[in-house]
Write a structure and sequence with these properties.
- The chain is an all-alpha fold.
- Helix 3 crosses helix 5, helix 9 runs antiparallel to helix 11 and helix 11 runs antiparallel to helix 14.
- It has 14 helices and no strands.
- Helix content is 74%, strand content 0%.
Length: 307
């Protein structure tokens, strides 16, 4: 019995030590993050908006998007029954604003994850593999950088079928170059350290070095970049929806602005149709930016971001 259990003891001890280190790192990160007041404000706003989006059917009902069962008259001004008024179909704008958070947050998060994933893969491989591969891949990256991101996203969204996945794909495949250049620079800095040379001397292959040595060291930069990209993705989704290239089956904040423009809210002065979705977009983008700056400052204190 002693012979069988002996080999498993070091493995269990190593796993317990790794878990303890992760818990310690998470606790230290949160302790440092709490010192950034702006970051806490942004995080609090995001938590509230996320809870509103998750519990939207409970808060405003599941039929808030229905055109046939609209509870009010078209273009009613704010009142006790409709705090933000109604749209051109008589739907409660407060309910539409709550449901719009679902679409905007989903597109922003998934598009940012796709963008950062592509940028990380390109940056790590371009920084690790020297020679012609790095030259070619970075020239492609430079081409995407000089091309207007919004124009490329509009072209993709116009060519592909209109759906939420089309918007996510259009944003994700056009916004990765900045992440790729940042990750490549960090990869080059990591691979210049002595322990990388020792790992190569001990027989470590390309996959081992990139996954076990390079990637863990660039992940803090990737995490900070993700929080910053989300705000840009939400703004891009709102722009595409305002231009009529969003998902026609769903409600988003940019789509509400497009509906308000088509209904003549701008010329009629119906501010309740225009202001709430615009403010919601600005608040979410600002909240993600504040969180991103705080995360970046915690993971890289040399940046000196103000608290």
């Amino acid at each position: 019995m002693t012979t069988e259990s002996a080999p498993t003891t070091p493995i269990k001890s190593a796993r317990a030590l790794a878990r303890a280190r992760r818990r310690h790192s998470a606790a230290r990160f949160w302790r440092e993050f709490r010192t950034h007041r702006a970051g806490l404000v942004g995080l609090g706003a995001l938590v509230v908006i996320a809870l509103i989006a998750v519990f939207a059917p409970v808060l405003v009902g599941s039929d808030a998007q229905s055109v046939t069962d609209a509870p009010g008259e078209p273009m009613e001004s704010p009142s006790g029954e409709f705090p933000l008024g109604t749209d051109q179909f008589g739907r409660d704008l407060l309910g539409l604003l709550v449901y719009g958070a679902r679409m905007s947050l989903t597109v922003g998060l998934l598009a940012a994850v796709l963008s950062v994933t592509i940028g990380t893969l390109v940056g790590v491989t371009a920084g690790h593999f020297k020679g012609w591969y790095s030259t070619v891949i970075m020239r492609v990256t430079d081409w995407f950088l000089v091309m207007p991101t919004l124009v490329l996203a509009i072209a993709l969204a116009a060519v592909l079928s209109g759906s939420i996945w089309t918007i996510i794909l259009a944003i994700g495949v056009t916004t990765w170059p900045t992440t790729a250049r940042l990750v490549r620079a960090q990869t080059l800095a990591v691979e210049s350290r002595p322990y990388i040379e020792r790992a190569q001397a001990l027989g470590g292959g390309h996959g081992h070095i990139m996954s076990r040595h390079v990637l863990p060291n660039v992940m803090p930069l990737v995490l900070a970049q993700t929080t910053l990209v989300i705000s840009s993705a939400i703004l891009t989704e709102a722009t595409l929806a305002f231009l009529g290239l969003g998902d026609p089956t769903g409600v988003s904040w940019g789509g509400l602005l497009q509906d308000a423009r088509e209904a003549g809210a701008v010329s009629a002065g119906d501010w309740w149709y225009l202001a709430p979705p615009g403010l919601a977009i600005a608040v979410v983008a600002l909240a993600f930016t504040l969180c991103g700056r705080a995360v970046e400052s915690v993971l890289n204190p040399r940046l000196g971001v103000s608290r």
